[in-house]
Structure to design on (855 residues):
């Protein structure tokens, strides 16, 4: 207390400020806090928005692609087509037949026709009706009402086409007469056209033409010409005539185009496998053309040029509509997508080898990077002396984690070239083993870093306890430290594997996108690691490069969905395992 | 604590003690890097006796304790000089395997650190790795005996398969003691075994230490002078890395020779 002498001058009392009033400083602090909060909310909203857009674009396209429209067709293995000369058909003969010879197409066409017949669908009638509808629509759009009756009155569509064509010709003649300077001739031509329209049954149009003739009669030839062009009758008549000529041009090729072309190959394969099928009928679901699929799933409306499936016309879609109505076409989950090999053709393309290849690669990654990664981490963390060399190794491992994956791909490719020079490169090119090894290299640093962090996190008291009892260093690590670090190691490993699952670039470089993967699918277990394989990301890449829009914009997304589900499953397993192994201390 | 009580207790507990020397340390020096942590310490630890190391924080008592079973080996920068003889054999001799040494010189730590395993596995771990039990029956016997020695058997016998980490703090520390005695050590080192415990658990552990004296040579590091007075027969006072005074506990607490010891036990330093 004595020390306080000199400091006991009274402190002037501070002005009393109410707690209810906020000082300027507090207000500013609140403003800063609020700004930071809003910034955070905005950032999260933005992220969620992009995530939603991403997921929506994937799922809205991918989910429909996971379903396939199939036509249930009575396949009739017609002996006459198989052997036009009559007599028995041997499997050898069928096997020898070239795919181009058209016998499969014949079988298909006959089967399709029989199926449509038995469903009560008259193809010619459907096609004619559809085109007549188009023609009437075209006419009425130009103000030529009564088209339906006129076409019906003309008899067959081709007759209607002739009538409309002739009427159109008179209009064209009138138009060219108006282009000259012969007033009388022009008036005459217009009157002829008017008469032709009246005779055909277009009363209103005839009256319009008579008015134009009157205009021309007063000498205003250019006005008359403009008025005639403005009606658009001529173009409408020619267009409608063109539509009406279509039914005659509809042929078998247009019909069988609805069904996916390569289905025919299956017919032959099945016949070779089972010659007894000749002369028999078998109901079968065959995929229909993938462009038509898009029409059926509602992605293309079928109205207007841009919304037509490429290569198809209205009449074919009309038949498809009829087939849907008759229940011949139905929608099924596309199981074959998971089992089929890769193909350029979207109808039969699948991700079977990719799933298999990815599974094998993950297995290789798991074995290699887990064993080597954990071993390296344990050595570095528990046994290695702390000196310049281990520091150097540590820095390099951390750097390795940041190396772009394509660099590992280049490394893999370099090894591949060396092996090829030694003479056995082709046997390993594009295999799951090579892919897995390259991905292991890539995953190793991730696992080492995660494992070391997990080992570091084990409390030193546990080590002390074990050492104090007389456990050796190795016993301490393997009996106590490692089990406690296991959840962390596991999480790191699964993160690494998930990373490897999505990696594309290195796999493209070492040839995992070159084969269709048929080999790995035919012998998944005997030679799985050493067969040419694919992987999920490379198959997504291949789908995304396809020339058909339905594959680009459907199957690629479907494959991505499968990949995402796999990743979710992996993460889920990681969480389960963590919960299971987690111990408190 | 009243002086009469303390003297009373000192008389009862601290009177007996074997005169056989178990551990003999000569000119022990410990360096942590450039820090000279222990300066030329000579000490003799008797068999079947509780020896207490007291002193202010950072005086080196724990460091010295950890020299006695070579736990300092795990610290890269630690360097030990001088000789420490266990039954006349230098434990820092090149031929000595620290693993074998630690089976003979057990250790109990400041913070209870049971393995995150069952109570049974905690106690059985030591005998297992040292091959002390030939059968499951023998192992069961060792576990029971150790838990009884640690006065934990009655509380733990019905829950041997439950995790040791689920016990209370005092029980965990007794479990650690059971774990340490299960390997049948000759010396038991205890590094502030009661500093994380409440007074009741402390009393139980102290009781236990007194019983353990019948079979083991116990060395205990403690911050509490009362505890040292209660449980030990010999007391060593460390200060700034020096062994200031080492004598019978009764003598240290009643009639210390060195003024520093007196300052410390009367609360003037430390």
């Amino acid at each position: 207390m004595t020390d306080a002498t000199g400091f006991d001058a009274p402190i002037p009392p501070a002005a009393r400020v109410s707690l209810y009033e906020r000082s300027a400083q507090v207000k500013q602090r609140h403003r800063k806090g609020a700004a930071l909060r809003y910034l955070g909310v905005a950032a999260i909203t933005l992220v969620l928005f992009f995530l939603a857009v991403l997921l929506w674009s994937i799922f809205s396209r991918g989910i429909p692609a996971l379903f396939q429209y199939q036509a249930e067709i009575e396949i009739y293995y017609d002996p006459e087509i198989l052997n036009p000369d009559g007599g028995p058909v041997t499997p050898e003969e069928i096997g020898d037949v070239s795919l181009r010879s058209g016998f499969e197409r014949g079988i298909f066409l006959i089967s399709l026709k029989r199926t449509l017949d038995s469903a009560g669908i008259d193809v010619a009638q459907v096609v004619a009706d559809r085109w007549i509808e188009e023609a009437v629509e075209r006419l009425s759009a130009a103000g030529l009402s009564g088209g339906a009756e006129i076409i019906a009155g003309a008899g067959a569509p081709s007759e209607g086409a002739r009538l409309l064509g002739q009427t159109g010709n008179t209009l064209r003649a009138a138009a060219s007469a108006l282009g000259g300077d012969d007033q009388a001739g022009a008036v005459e031509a217009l009157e002829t056209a008017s008469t032709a329209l009246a005779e055909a049954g277009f009363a209103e149009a005839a009256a319009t033409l008579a008015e134009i003739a009157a205009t021309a009669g007063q000498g205003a030839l250019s006005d008359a010409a403009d008025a005639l062009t403005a009606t658009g009758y001529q173009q409408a008549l020619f267009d409608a005539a063109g539509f009406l000529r279509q039914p005659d041009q509809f042929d078998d090729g247009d019909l069988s185009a609805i069904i996916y072309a390569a289905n025919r190959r299956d017919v032959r394969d099945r016949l070779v496998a089972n010659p007894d099928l000749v002369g028999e009928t078998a109901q079968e679901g065959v995929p229909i053309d993938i462009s038509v699929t898009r029409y059926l799933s509602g992605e293309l409306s079928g109205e207007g040029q841009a919304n037509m499936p490429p290569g198809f016309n209205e009449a074919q879609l009309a038949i498809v509509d009829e087939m849907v109505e008759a229940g011949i076409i139905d929608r099924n989950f596309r199981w074959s997508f998971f089992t089929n090999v890769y193909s350029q053709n979207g109808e039969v393309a699948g991700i079977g080898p990719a799933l298999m290849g990815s599974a094998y690669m993950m297995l290789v990654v798991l074995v290699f990077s887990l064993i080597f990664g954990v071993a390296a981490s344990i050595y570095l963390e528990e046994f290695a002396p702390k000196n310049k060399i281990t520091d150097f190794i540590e820095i390099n491992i951390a750097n390795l984690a940041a190396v772009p994956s394509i660099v590992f791909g280049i490394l893999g490719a370099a090894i591949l070239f060396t092996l090829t020079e030694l003479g056995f490169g082709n046997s390993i090119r594009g295999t799951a083993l090579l892919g897995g090894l390259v991905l292991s290299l890539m995953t190793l640093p991730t696992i080492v870093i995660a494992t070391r962090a997990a080992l570091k996190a084990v409390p030193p008291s546990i080590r002390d306890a074990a050492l104090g009892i007389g456990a050796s260093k190795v016993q301490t690590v393997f009996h106590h430290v490692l089990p406690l670090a296991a959840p962390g190691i596991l999480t790191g490993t699964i993160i690494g594997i998930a990373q490897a699952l999505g990696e594309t670039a290195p796999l493209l470089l070492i040839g995992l996108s070159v084969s269709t993967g048929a080999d790995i699918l035919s012998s998944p277990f005997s030679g799985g690691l050493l067969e040419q394989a694919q992987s999920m990301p490379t198959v997504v890449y291949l789908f995304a490069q396809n020339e058909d829009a339905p594959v680009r914009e459907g199957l690629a997304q479907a494959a991505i969905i499968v990949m995402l589900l796999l990743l979710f499953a992996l993460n889920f397993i990681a969480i389960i395992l963590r919960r299971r192994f987690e111990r408190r201390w | 604590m009243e002086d009469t009580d303390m003297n009373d207790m000192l008389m009862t507990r601290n009177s007996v003690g074997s005169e056989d020397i178990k551990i003999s340390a000569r000119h022990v020096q410990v360096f942590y890097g450039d820090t000279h942590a222990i300066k030329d310490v000579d000490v003799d630890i008797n068999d079947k006796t509780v020896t207490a190391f007291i002193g202010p924080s950072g005086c080196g008592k724990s460091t010295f304790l950890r020299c006695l079973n070579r736990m300092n080996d795990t610290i890269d920068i630690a360097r030990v000089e001088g000789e420490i003889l266990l039954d006349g054999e230098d434990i820092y001799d090149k031929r000595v395997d620290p693993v074998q040494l630690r089976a003979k010189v057990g250790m109990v730590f400041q913070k209870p650190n049971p393995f995150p395993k069952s109570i049974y596995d905690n106690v059985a771990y030591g005998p297992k790795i040292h091959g002390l039990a030939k059968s499951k029956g023998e192992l069961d016997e060792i576990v029971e005996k150790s838990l009884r020695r640690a006065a934990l058997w009655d509380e733990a016998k019905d829950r041997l398969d439950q995790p040791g980490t689920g016990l209370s703090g005092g029980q965990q520390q007794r479990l650690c003691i059971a774990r340490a005695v299960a390997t049948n050590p000759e010396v038991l080192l205890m590094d502030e075994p009661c500093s994380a415990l409440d007074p009741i658990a402390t009393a139980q552990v102290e009781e236990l230490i007194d019983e353990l004296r019948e079979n083991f040579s116990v060395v205990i590091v403690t911050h509490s002078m009362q505890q040292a007075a209660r449980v030990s027969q010999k007391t060593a006072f460390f200060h700034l890395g020096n062994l200031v005074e080492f004598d019978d506990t009764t003598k240290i607490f009643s009639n210390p020779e060195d003024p520093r010891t007196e300052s410390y036990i009367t609360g003037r330093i430390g």
In short: The mean pLDDT of chain B is 87. DSSP finds eleven helices and ten strands in chain B. Chain B touches chain A at residues 69, 71, 74, 76, 99-103, 106-109, 111, 113-116, 125-126, 129-130, 163, 165, 176, 179-180, 183 (CB under 8 Å).
